[in-house]
Amino acid sequence: MQTILGRILTRRSMATSKIILQQAKNSPPLVASSCPAGTPLNLQIKKSGKEPVALEDHEYPEWLWKVLDQNAQLKKLQQDPMKLRKKQLRSANRDKIKQNNFLSEI
């Protein structure tokens, strides 16, 4: 009796977890800023300037929340193949330089 009940519970929990994962994939993640509005950002460059403070999330432009989203950036790059190729070449060149520097130390 215990094994049958255990199997049913396991199947239910697996089905529930699949539903939760599908819902998480379908809904876009909500990005919130890491500091509350009005927090000083300690970015003052000029002595005479005022200290910048954090704004409300809705006061920032929409593109700001997509900068760190790699899927959004990849979609944007796929729309412009020249930029994508340039990024690929830059990455390959950087890797080659790192490998040459490593080999020169041996």
Automatic annotation (TrEMBL):
Annotated spans, Disordered: 86-106
Species of provenance: Lachancea nothofagi CBS 11611
PANTHER family per UniProt: 39S RIBOSOMAL PROTEIN L54, MITOCHONDRIAL, LARGE RIBOSOMAL SUBUNIT PROTEIN ML54
UniProt keyword Secreted, yes or no: no
GO molecular function term, any single one: structural constituent of ribosome
Subcellular location: Mitochondrion
Entry's family note: Belongs to the mitochondrion-specific ribosomal protein mL54 family.
Name this polypeptide is given: Large ribosomal subunit protein mL54
One Pfam family of this chain: Ribosomal_L37
Presence of keyword Magnesium: no
Alphabetical keyword list: Mitochondrion, Ribonucleoprotein, Ribosomal protein, Transit peptide
Superkingdom per UniProt: Eukaryota
GO cellular component assignments: mitochondrial large ribosomal subunit
Main localization (coarse): mitochondrion
